[in-house]
Design a protein that fits this description.
The structure is a single chain. The protein is mostly helical and 494 residues long. It has one domain (2-141, 205-423). Helix content is 69%, strand content 1%. It contains 23 helices and two strands. It has helices at residues 2-7, 9-12, 15-33, 39-46, 55-72, 74-79, 92-100, 104-137, 142-158, 164-178, 204-222, 240-247, 251-266, 272-285, 298-310, 316-322, 328-339, 346-351, 353-377, 390-409, 412-430, 436-458, 470-493, and strands at 181-182, 189-190. A two-stranded antiparallel ribbon has the order 1-2. The protein is globular.
Amino acid sequence: MYEMLIMALPGVLQPENFLAIVFGVLAGICVGAMPGLSATMAISVLIPFTFGLDPLVALGLMAGIYNGAMYGGAIPAVLLKIPGTPAAVATTFDGFPMAQQGRGGEALQVAVVSSAIGGIASALSLMLLAPPLAQVTLLFGPAEMFWIAVVGLLSIVFLLGGNLLKGLVAACFGILVSLVGTDTVNGTDRFTFGFYELLDGIHIVVLLVGLYAMPPVVDLLQTQLDTTQFKYNKDQTKSIWVAIPKMFRFWKTWIKSSLIGIWIGILPGAGGSMAAFLSYNEAKRNSKNPDDWGKGEPEGVAAAETSNNADTAAALIPALTLGIPGTAVAAIMLGGLLIHGLQPGPMLFRESPDIVFGFMWQFLFGAILLIFLGGSLATNSFAQLLKLPRPLLGSLIVVLMFIGVYSINERMFDVYLMLIFGAIGIAFDKLKFPLPPVVLGLILGSFAEENLRLALTIGLGDWGILTKSNTSLVLISLVVLVVMTPLIKKVRNS
């Protein structure tokens, strides 16, 4: 399986594929540098424009945006104490005090190098762990794949944190959306309400753009950003290549934070924010001068930024092999794979090895490019993005959303549908309903139904076929464990 990894490298190094990574990293840094925007929103807006592109070009853009945005969130976190992305909250603890001391450039350099190291570690983990896991899952039949889908759905609901009931409602809503359209088995219409446009189901891009892009854009247009405290003098910052050798004193923090980020990334529903906080606390606990933390300690920036980037590619390990995304961005990327005719799961490695392994290389190159692109540009031009008028930026994103969704089938029905999902997304956001279960419900709902019906067909209607294999029993045990985990935590805390 690893020989396919080497064989995929020349395709990634083709000019158009490599340029896609470069453009994605630059765009991602821009997005991350604007408070209120995120990699999730950027990729959801981008996906409609990737129709007609080569899959590797499209995936290169996504990989670049993901890597760039995770670092870009450190720019306002350091300069304004406003995390550009949710995962950059821990970066503000020491990054902003450093900026107040006139060391903002140093903080951004530590952030970009640490982000690159975390991203490289994450990409390597994806390359090493995903292929053998995919080999194992190739042995699964319809019954086992049904239970994998159930594990994925319940994991994102029960382990996401927050209100369990809201998570279940969100997942059920996603499953309901997945049922819209023509039944592939008996050909009957389901939940189309007489609209012929719904016969093929609801396109995942319409849902993604509405749910994930509309709420932050509305918030962007409604709120003003205070940049009066913005101070940055690029002339006081040394070259990134002069600064890097002095950062090697953080090597232990880089290793620990990378391992924590990779582990958190693999866990469904955890995400970069949890990884950053855990790494920050662990590094502070082992520090020789813990009292200096929170007052401008660069190691704190290194710990937070390494970990929140180490979770990026790692979140795709269960996503690519099992169809279970570890984060919201991973769920969006599964949608990106689907629109290019690539079904996430074990068969992806057998049917499209050049694309899936090329995607892994793109994550690695995207992380490396952070040093060259972010290290030289983020300390001057990207920092000025904070002064852009937010109404102008929000209006531009709305236009891109409308054009992108209309271009899918060239019909206004999809635009109206996107606006409906946008309203639902805003309501979910206000009511604190999680969005990842909706996306996962849409992706895994039809997948679970298809495998369940196939298993029952093979078993001649005998439901016992779902429990006949040892693998199914192990997966059922996982289902029970996932469901019981919140109850066990609640009993322990009481």
